[in-house]
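Reader question, answered in our methods column.
A reader sent in the components of a multi-part assembly and asked whether the whole thing could be modeled at once rather than chain by chain. We filled in our standard form and ran it. Here is what they sent:
COMPLEX SIZE: two components
ENTRIES:
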Amino acid sequence: MSEPLAPRQGPAPEEIQQSPPTTVASRFAAWQRAGGILVPVLTAMLAFLIGGLLVLVTGHNPIQAYWDIVKGAGLNWIVHPTNTDVANTAAYNFSQTLLQTTPLILTGLAVAFAFRCGMFNIGGNGQYLVGLYVANWIGISFVHMAKPTHILLGIVGAALAGAIWAGIAGFLKATTGAHEVITTIMLNWIAYWIGNYIFQQGGPLQGVANKPLNIPISGDVAQSAKLPVFWGDADLQGLHIGFFIAIGALVVFWLILNRTTLGYEVRAVGYNPDAAAYGGIKVRTNYIRAMAISGAFAGLAGGLDMLGYLYHFGTTDVQAASIGFLGIAVALLGRNTALGVGLAAFLFGGLLYGTTHGLQSGTIDPSLAGHLTEMIQGLVVLFVGADVLILAVWGSRRRLKRKRPTAGPAPEPEAASS
Amino acid sequence: MEASTVLEMRGVTKRFPGVVANDHVDLDLRKGEVHALLGENGAGKSTLMNILYGLYRPDEGEIHLNGKKVLFSSAKDAIDRGIGMVHQHFMLIPVMTVAENIVLEVEPTKAGVLLDYGKAVERVREISTQYGLAVDPTAKVEGISVGQQQRVEIVKALYREADILILDEPTAVLTPQEAGELFAIVKSLQEGGTSIIFISHKLNEVLEIADRITVLRRGKKIDTVPREGATEEGLAKMMVGREVLLRVDKKPPETGDLLLEVRNLHVNDERGLPAVRDVSLQVRAGEIVGIAGVEGNGQSELIEAITGLRHAESGEIVVAGEVVARPNARRMLDVGVGHIPEDRQRRGLVLEFSIAENIALHDYNNPPESRLGWLFPRRLIERARGLIKEFDIRGGGPTTLGGALSGGNQQKVVAAREVARDPKVLIAAQPTRGLDVGAIEYLHRRLVEERDEGRAILLISLELDEVLSLADRILVMYEGRVVGEHEPGVTEEEIGLEMLGARRQETSAA
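And here is the structure of the entire assembly that came back:
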């Protein structure tokens, strides 16, 4: 804060007292770092607490419910990780948690990347869906292709589809100033209705075998397009190598942002577009490019899900899909960093699988079970939006602590006046 | 003397983690006195006043108001006891009228719940005529000037029956004319018995307005002195802790080639209205050309057009003899135009970026900072380390965030970045706005050094003093036109008249 002004030559006596400036700076950074870890942890804890209260209100034991979720998510497998046989329930559950984590990492990264460029990409779900459609189409076509090229084509096609889908929003923002929140929401709906159209009875992607049966579901992708499964059985939703692609995407995300000029531009525009423009950075180009990269992550999520374990998709699946929306909570909780997104995706992946497969009607109201994840997701988004509040709660707690010992000798303040 | 003391702060100490913002500070304020609180940015002036205004609690020390000990737990307590504060950044609601803003939270009511707007307007009018504060109670705040908004804030405090008024750097946002008007208001308040604490880091205005002056340095009170016998040099020494050079020391310019030429430039503002009208100017190597003018007369648009940040309607920009075709920010940087922007926080720096990243803002895309799109953070840091030393940037290292630096050091980062690119032309827009004496001294000296290096420097400043002391040639802008050109020997009065448009007819006809 104080500005040292002693001349540089010679150690002036004031020089000794010059620790404050550096301390302030380092403290500022430390506070940021602390806030960076503290806020998400407190946010998640608060969300779980409120979720637990709800379980309590419905007359069940929240601790038991959460323990069931932990077991349902297969986290107890970590105690004896050598047993990777999926016949073991814990190991199987854990593999399923990772299967859910995979697309969440990518849709989380999609939201996070746009955020880093100062944009709120609500369209992760639409981008995820178009990625899924394109992967499905590529998977059922090109049946004579060799496996590696077929998979590569499917994945790249899905990512490209997502990039174009989000790129439209970026383009509209750059050229007409249309707000990306509005345009991505609208693009979600377009993707949604395209899905309803292509898989419906008589739709272009409806499975040939499903047509006479009047089932609005696509055909299965060819064997050559299916991602290799490395844990479990492909017929029983085993964990596919897309998981490693998602982990790789976390690294790529970090590298792009911190080790490339593209990432430098993205961050500069995200923090301060005026300063970026002054620095010679083309702000509009960056909006389009960042949106496209963001959409590529979400499209990739759709592609991996399709080629990894879904293999086919139907109109009801389109209507139920919410992985893209969950990505918003993942990015917010993960503070838009690679590591944060990875951890938050794992948390939500576990919740998603744990609540649907771990809870028994004895421990929780069955009507509540499936909605607990969504509720916690909603609470997280709510609290992250209000992280100032969380910090204030934390701050007042500390202030209370400090006040207590000094309360004794403090003079009565208002006594003399009024 | 005891009887007339309205406020006494004794041994006030406030510690923030790692810093003692106020270290046993004493301050007493007499009835009807203008008491200046002088100190550099970060000396603890604002902290002390925030304690007085109830926004912070002191860790130690006592406040006595009219002989009684008080402890405020909020600004409301302070307001209730007759303390008013006008902050640097006004706290007004733009869409509401002046009267509505003033009576906010203490509205006169009809039938218990309805706002008695008529009465509010009348009361505001009463106060403003009493102290000569010309404000229209029915005007909307968004439609009035900054100087008028400040008056609204003052009336707001008086409406709440403040008899102690704290003005936090009140002239920082004002034009010289408005500052003159403010001083007249302060005098009339003083005659009416209001005691005023006037926070400032400008020596000349403190000597003009204050009865007594208290100097703070690094959280400690250095001394309280009466205005009689105080000098700018003496106060500056107390503020900074060493001798300060107040006059800029410079040799006559040795001008060389014509490096920047602007020909018949027309530029529109955001609303599409002409802001720069047919401006032509020339800056040679080795000279500083200063542009004086009241804020909002096209200076900002002119700079933005020259630096490629704003599209010009017509006209040419010539750098070192070559017409720049289709200027944009990147191209102007590449042809050698450096730019210290007028708002370092909005434009000059990315506050969330480290010093190293900020210094790379123009060069991140060139070797050695990066190659083929791959960035080398270590090289950014290496480069920053050298410049931090050369420009004496204090308060952190290469990885310290820009936002964690003081204003003076932020400006040094901007200056370091621009100068390090070895530009032919350097555009310095309000390079010392909001900075303290030490930083101003440094930047002025540096600009003169860069001039002597053979750069062409275009200086734009709202501070007439700054233009007069630095520039080798002075242009005056009024309503988008250059209305006068002068040698440095010109008087302030002469330029002042042109700045207000008094001689427009003759000059624009010429």
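What stands out: The first strand of chain B starts at residue 5 and ends at 16. Chain B has 18 helices and 24 strands.
Send us your own complexes using the same form.
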